[in-house]
Amino acid sequence: MRHTLIFAALAGALFVSACANTVRGVGRDVGNTVDATGAAVRDVAE
Q1: pLDDT for position 21
Q2: Closest C-alpha to 5, from 13, 46, 38, 39
Q3: pLDDT tens digits for the chain (46 residues)?
Q4: CA 5, CA 16: separation in Å to the nearest integer?
Q5: From the CA atom positions of the chain, what is the Rg in Å?
Q6: Using CA atoms, how far apart are residues 44 and 29, in angstroms rounded to an integer?
Q7: Which residues, 6 or more positions from 7, have their beta carbon under 8 angstroms from its beta carbon?
Q8: Spacing of C-alpha 17 from chain mean position
Q9: CA–CA dist 45, 18 (Å, integer)
Q10: What is the pLDDT of residue 41?
Q11: Which string of b and e fits 7-32 if b means at least 16 CB within 10 Å?
Q12: Residue 13, CB half-sphere, CA atoms under 13 Å: how many?
């Protein structure tokens, strides 16, 4: 029983960690897209 609880806690920690990394990566991707779009607009306007 105790091994099952330890395994479940470790699996939960890994799951939360993976989700945090994914959300952080999506945030970077969106930020890069916004920056690239802004640069393209500035290039067209010039």
Answers
A1: 75
A2: 13
A3: 888 888 898 888 888 887 877 878 888 898 999 899 988 888 888 7
A4: 16
A5: 20
A6: 23
A7: none
A8: 10
A9: 41
A10: 86
A11: eeeeeeeeeeeeeeeeeeeeeeeeee
A12: 6
Residue in the structure block whose two tokens are 């897209």: 33
Give the Å distances, CA to CA, from 6 to 11, 14, 45. 9, 12, 59
Q: Which three-class secondary structure state does DSSP give residue 1?
A: coil
Which structure tokens are listed for 14?
Answer: 């890994």
Residue in this structure with the two tokens 């393209």, named with its chain if needed: 40
Residue type, 13: A
